[in-house]
Amino acid sequence: MDPILDDPTLLARHPATQGPDDAARTGHVVITTTEAKALARELSGQGGISHSQVLEAAAHAAGHRDWNTFHAAAPERQDDPVGRQRVIPVLRVFDHQLAREFYCSFLGFTWRWEHQFETETPVYAEVGREGCILHLSEHHGDATPGSGVMITVPDLAAYREGLLVQRHRNARPGISRDAWGQTMTVLDPFDNRIVFWQRA
């Protein structure tokens, strides 16, 4: 029996979830995704409950079906200070460990979080780099393998040099120069096309 999952009022009593009168009106806890992640770190660090279990419980307490639904519906405060909408591409991956090695160790992204419903189920993760956010999913149907995204960078030549010095066996990209700027295409291990673009 899990006290957090079986008694959502435990979340409601935590300082991170104390908000205005919205909770009383809706019956749901008022919490942002940023606060939910901080709460998950704190509670999972105390043992007895996993990070992902806290995130799922926070999503349910906030009135959402699951963490992915909550995270998609509730932008993080620091990412969206004036309420602008943000589009986050979802790329299909088949091995989250290989994806982490490629996107983080090679391309320089940060592995921000990951979610699994159970230990052996597919992973859904978020990576970020200099304001760019990508979601990587092992779930069948979330995205089509071989998709493409375009990411703007301020200095493409410098970024490329940082990649080349790593001497990756399958990724030594070149730069194309066109009227609209310079582009560099990198294929990830799952045939997704990541195009880095420096505007003209």
From TrEMBL:
Keywords: Antibiotic resistance. Residues 1-26 are annotated as: Disordered. Transmembrane segments: none annotated. Residues 85-199 form the VOC domain. InterPro entries: Bleomycin-R (IPR000335), Glyas_Bleomycin-R_OHBP_Dase (IPR029068), VOC_core (IPR037523). GO terms for biological process: response to antibiotic. This is Bleomycin resistance protein. It holds the Pfam family Glyoxalase_7. The lineage of its organism: Bacteria, Bacillati, Actinomycetota, Actinomycetes, Micrococcales. The keyword Lyase does not apply. Belongs to the bleomycin resistance protein family. It comes from the Bacteria.
